[in-house]
User: Fold this.
Amino acid sequence: MPTVRSPHESTVAVDGLQKGVDMTRNPITEVADDVYRIERAATNCYLVVDDGITLVDAGLPRMWPLLVEALGHIGAGPDDIDAVVLTHAHFDHVGLCDRLVHEHHTPIHVHDRDRMLARHPYTYRHERARLTYPFRHPSSVGVLARMVAAGALGVKGVHAEGGVNPGQPLDVPGGLVPIWSPGHTAGHCGYLLPSAGVLFSGDALVTLDPYTGGRGPRIVAGAATADSAMALERLGALSATGAGVVLPGHGDAWRAGIESAVAEARAVGQR
Ligand SMILES: [Zn+2]
Ligand SMILES: [Zn+2]
Assistant:
């Protein structure tokens, strides 16, 4: 299906796609072979192109034009997405699902423990009051405002299928392997793309926390995390994948391996 290929480790733009360059400069970037990052408002989703296309996480509603543009670069359209897999079902990870389901009949997969959250993506548990964060962490204000501009207040719930069993490869393009990593939500899973040594870490480990503006590997603040102690403990499961490249739900790729990312996140600890 993919008709556009860029040479590995190239730093030239290929049909608007950049590789090996500062990823904040372009909302659509090939971040690993046949893996495309789509970014808006510090929120990521990823296209995995294999014998079909899997969308990992579904961002915010107004990322739709970017999704269509990214698909266009590989000669595809929304109908060509075979499946959406969600690391978890917070509103900023399900924003494109409603349109994909109703206009393109795309199946959505999430761990059973986050299926209810997928239907009601704002009714999530968190340890700390969200309202105080922008006051204590002024650098988060810009990020949160951009999330609102990207449709963060208008996300519709969606029916998601289960069938996500930790350790068992999913029957989706890329054969993603769910990595059980609850704590941020009750059903959070990372996904390992075995062929590329790439780990989609979702919000179990991010490199930019929207709630504090903090950069570098870390768990998400208690404003949006259900159980920080569990989240920190379960980072071990991510580390055990030995993935070389970490692609988080928020922030840039981490290319120094998952073990060093987990070590840094544990050093930062709970916020
Ligand atoms: Zn989240
Ligand atoms: Zn998130």
Observations:
- Residues 28-268 form a domain with the Metallo-beta-lactamase; Chain A fold (CATH 3.60.15.10).
- Helices lie at 64-73, 97-104, 115-119, 133-136, 140-149, 228-233, 235-239, 258-268.
- The first strand starts at residue 28 and ends at 32.
- Residues 90, 92-93, 203, 249-250 surround zinc ion (ligand 2) (CB under 6 Å).
